[in-house]
Design a protein that fits this description.
Number of strands of chain B: 0
Helix content of chain A: 55-70%
Largest sheet of chain B: none
Shape of chain B: extended
Order of helices and strands of chain A: HHHHHHHHHHH
Radius of gyration of chain A: 26 Å
Structural class of chain B: mainly alpha
Shape of chain A: globular
Oligomer: heterodimer
Structural class of chain A: mainly alpha
Number of helices of chain B: 4
Distance between the termini of chain A: 87 Å
Radius of gyration of chain B: 27 Å
Strand content of chain A: under 5%
Helix content of chain B: 10-25%
Chain lengths: 208, 161
């Protein structure tokens, strides 16, 4: 009984503070409290976002595991002499905040796709692949291959250490800003869809 | 009597197995795999892998119609119904941008010698004929001499380069 009244009076006291805060606490303290609460909220949001930003999350869907992931395993971005491994979010989710949220909004489309089974078999995936790849190309083209550049930067590229074939094209098209990575390096992580009508990066300008 | 006969039969049946068993344990000739000198029952360490030669330097052709060797990397280059990565550089319309040598006219000809507008289907799978090289040493010797050497016109050359 005594405990009950104690709790009741405590709640009442708290409520008084809550309802008319400035009587009991300084404005400075409140601002600080608000700030801390904001940080906590923002942090929690961020953490939730981080959890969906891992490869394990991506390949928890069989659509992603059986197709893109299986194919990625064959490529240089999975095993290489440097031991650096690119995972799905490295290439597919921008690291910057605003971009990240924009991408997440778009990702809701994938949940929709999951529910409506747009690519739940290999056949359906292959049929739809050109369209999906097209979205990725457009995105990377629009952000100047931002994700690639998070790991590879044109500034740090020593073209004298590259093979002449690569150096030549990088010099003519990349360093002049005429083209971006994805124009020339399509299909570096997955098999390509039907490429009829898609010109390689180095010819588009020559043909016009 | 019956028992002795049975025992003799069992022994006779076991002899070949015993012999091969002993032989295999000795590392003596047993069943062989065509790719190696050792019996298939023996564990041998894997051979070292060799490095690809990707220096972009064209190699000499040993005879006029040899498919030239590929002097560059082709890892993950896709050649299938969807895309032929090689042709994105070597096809007629792409060479200006890529500065790669164009596939020669023989690649446009069908088996009747007709020159087609695009690369002929029988030349579509490039790596059927063109291969990259590694720095591996030849497994067996080779006494090939090229045309000039046979005529005595050029320097004698042992083995394909």
């Amino acid at each position: 009984m005594a405990i009950k009244t104690a709790i009741c009076s405590m709640i009442a006291a708290c409520w008084r503070v809550f309802a008319r805060p400035s009587v009991h606490y300084s404005l400075g303290f409140l601002t600080l409290g608000g700030f801390i609460a904001g940080v906590l909220f923002w942090g929690g949001f961020n953490t939730a976002l981080e959890a969906t930003n891992t490869e394990a999350f991506c390949i928890s869907c069989h659509e992603m595991r059986d197709n893109p992931y299986e194919e990625l395993k064959q490529t240089i971005h999975f095993t290489n002499r440097s031991g650096v491994r690119a995972s799905c979010p490295d290439c597919h989710v921008p690291h910057q905040w605003t971009d990240k949220i924009a991408r997440k909004m778009q990702a809701s489309k994938e949940v929709w796709g999951k529910i409506f089974r747009t690519i739940d078999t290999r056949e359906k995936f292959l049929d739809k692949r050109r369209e999906l790849a097209g979205h990725e190309w457009d995105r990377l083209k629009a952000n100047n291959s931002l994700e690639c550049r998070n790991c590879h930067s044109a500034e740090s590229m020593d073209i004298t250490k590259q093979t002449p074939r690569a150096a030549k094209l990088h010099e003519t098209f990349l360093f002049t800003g005429e083209k971006t990575c994805i124009d020339c390096h399509k299909g570096i992580a997955h098999r390509l869809p039907d490429m009829t009508g898609v010109e390689p990066g180095w010819t588009a300008s020559a043909i016009k | 009597m019956k028992r002795i006969l049975f025992a003799a039969l069992v022994l006779a049946a076991a002899v070949p197995a015993l012999v091969t068993g002993v032989v295999a344990a000795d590392g003596q000739p047993g069943p062989r795999v065509s790719s190696g000198p050792h019996p298939i029952t023996l564990d041998v360490p894997a051979e070292v892998t060799n490095r690809e030669i990707v220096d972009d330097v064209k190699r000499v052709r040993n005879y006029a119609d040899q498919p030239p060797l590929i002097p560059h990397a082709i890892r993950d280059y896709q050649i299938d119904l969807n895309i032929n990565k090689c042709l994105t550089c070597h096809d007629r319309r792409n060479t200006e941008g890529s500065q790669a040598p164009m596939v020669s006219v023989t690649h446009f000809q069908d088996r009747d010698g007709q020159t087609l507008g695009t690369v002929s289907p029988r030349r579509y799978f490039c790596t059927q004929c063109h291969v990259p090289q590694t720095d591996a040493k030849p497994i067996v010797g080779n006494r090939f001499r090229d045309f000039d050497a046979v005529l005595g016109a050029g320097p004698a050359k042992e083995g394909a380069k």
